[in-house]
Design goal:
507 residues, alpha+beta, FAD/NAD(P)-binding domain, Glutaredoxin, eight-stranded mixed sheet, six-stranded mixed sheet, 14 helices, 30% helix, globular, oxidoreductase, FAD-bd, Bifunctional 3-(3-hydroxy-phenyl)propionate/3-hydroxycinnamic acid hydroxylase, PheA/TfdB_FAD_monoxygenase, FAD/NAD-bd_sf
Length: 507
């Protein structure tokens, strides 16, 4: 590729994670952030085990583990704080981390920015407000103009691609002519962040109070950090009264309110995520009510899905800086894979939101009662939590094999040096083949064409393969199963579908 970097607009967690993932593939990036410093107050506070795995790929898993706190799960409570339903989270999930971890977003952002300094491929410019994004109709590089906050000077850079990680008010979204699809949830809430060592009543997980008059969310973020969220109509009780089910310490000197701010929770999805070489990620592409803690997680999934595809396309583009039709189709799979998943996450959050608030119409009480009754049926809550991890649907990079579209598990394995390591650290950032049998010659040839690492499955992975009816699987760099060799088979199931997208070179 040329020396033009990928320009990332916005240096929040999604933007910086994208830069770090690109760096692992040798792709340089320039991050443009209009603010000088990390925003000091908490916003996102929850990460699932897949998000933790993505942060591992970004290179900060050890540091993040030191500041994260596993959560036990989620409880839906009625207005009298009686349990309607409980969604337990495991301390060790499919991806090798607790299924839910609580954290402080400013701490996460500082860890990510520190990681940037370890990668010369990444450059961060703060106080840089993007004013213009222009691309020609022929699919060439993009011109990005930004204004320096200190001297007002405008600078234009040539970008190999642009990633819009610039939030709900995204200028990048405007530049590609994208609008919002309304998914029909909009409510005003107050968020209260507190630091205290005084007693606070909790069970180690998240409380969501399903009260049509005063719905609320409570969670413990860190050892001495707590968050409450309330939908407050006119004439709502004062803050001590609202917090009284959890603590009596609001008047003590030790009880410090870090932030009390009003937010509008919305459910929206951008109607397009890409135009040419410009892409939308995170809140620029979707807005999710916070009730299931998936806002940031969904953005991190965007970055993990897109960056390996973009790196592959840029590293083999032609001498004229044009992408081939093949690479254009490869990049189209970003939106076709990610948009349906984001929609599911938003709809699940809206469902929980309706369970909490029930709306304001005459059927509200009936809906809340129905939700409570259904959630008490044994086994119902488990499928509800699995909705977020359903396989990607079949497509150009996902075959019809049984395991295709799922993530492989991440157990501890023996590394090249004989020490124990997480699977992804052994596989690095490449394609990989996990196999329980000697690899057939045709499959080995395909692995070689992809420069895929071939790894013999350990007991945990062999069990997973057998349950999926496979002798081996081909993993994408984001650890999604692309294809599988069925039991006693001799080759992957649909090579002709995906190999033209991945095994060709620029023409």
């Amino acid at each position: 590729m040329t020396g033009a970097p990928v320009v990332i607009v916005g240096a929040g967690p999604v933007g910086v994670t994208a830069a770090l993932l690109l760096a692992r593939h040798g792709v340089p990036s320039l991050l443009l952030e209009r603010h000088r410093e990390v925003y000091p107050l908490p916003r996102a506070v929850a990460a699932d085990d897949e998000a933790r795995r993505i942060l591992q790929a970004a290179g900060i898993d050890v540091e993040f583990t030191a500041v994260a706190r596993p959560a036990r799960g989620l409880r839906l409570l009625d207005a009298r704080h009686r349990v309607i339903a409980e969604f337990r989270r495991l301390p060790y999930g499919h991806h090798g981390y607790p299924q839910t971890s609580m954290f402080d977003q400013p701490e996460l952002e500082r860890l990510l920015r520190e990681a940037l300094t370890r990668h010369p491929e990444c450059e961060l410019r703060t106080g840089a407000e993007v004013t213009s994004i222009k691309q020609d109709e022929e699919g060439g590089p993009v011109q990005v103009t930004y204004r320096d906050a200190d001297d007002g000077q405008h600078t234009t850079v040539v970008a190999a691609a642009v990633l819009g990680c610039d939030g709900a008010g995204s200028r990048t979204r405007e530049a590609i002519g994208a609008g919002w699809e309304d998914l029909h949830f909009e409510e005003d809430w107050t968020v209260v962040d507190v630091r205290t060592t005084a007693p606070v009543r909790g069970w180690g997980g998240v409380d969501q109070v399903c009260d049509p008059h005063h719905p609320a969310t409570f969670m413990r973020i860190a050892e001495d950090r707590y968050r409450w969220e309330f939908r407050l109509p006119d004439g709502a009780p004062d803050l001590p009264s609202l917090l009284s089910p959890w603590t009596d310490a609001t008047s003590t000197p030790d009880f410090k309110i870090l932030r009390q701010a009003n937010y509008t929770f919305r459910a929206r999805l951008a109607d397009r995520w890409r135009r040419g070489r410009v892409f939308l990620l995170g809140d620029a592409a979707h807005q999710t009510p916070p009730f299931i803690g998936q806002g940031l997680c969904t953005g991190l999934r965007d970055a993990h899905n897109l960056t390996w595809k973009l790196a592959r396309a840029l590293l083999r583009q032609g001498a004229d800086d044009r992408l081939s039709a093949t690479d254009d189709r490869l990049l189209d799979t970003y939106e076709s894979e990610r948009r349906p998943h984001a929609r599911r996450a938003i709809r699940l959050a809206v469902t929980v939101g309706w369970a909490m608030t029930g709306g304001q119409d005459r059927a509200a009480a009936l809906r809340r009662a129905a939700v409570g009754a259904v959630c008490r049926v044994p086994g119902v809550t488990r499928p509800a939590t699995r909705d977020l991890v359903r396989p990607l649907p079949p497509g150009p990079l996902v075959t019809h094999a049984r395991l295709a579209g799922t993530h492989c598990p991440q157990p501890w394995v023996r590394g090249d040096d004989g020490t124990h390591a997480r699977l992804d650290d052994v596989l690095a950032n490449s394609f990989a083949v996990l196999t329980a049998v000697p690899l057939p010659p045709t499959a080995q040839a395909l692995a070689d064409a992809l420069d895929a690492r071939v790894t013999r499955a350990n007991a945990t992975l062999t069990t997973w393969l057998r349950r999926g009816g496979a002798d081996a699987v081909l993993l994408r760099p984001d650890r999604v199963v692309l294809d599988a060799i069925p039991r006693h088979g001799v080759d992957f199931t649909a090579t002709r579908t995906w190999s033209p997208l991945l095994c060709t070179t620029a023409t």
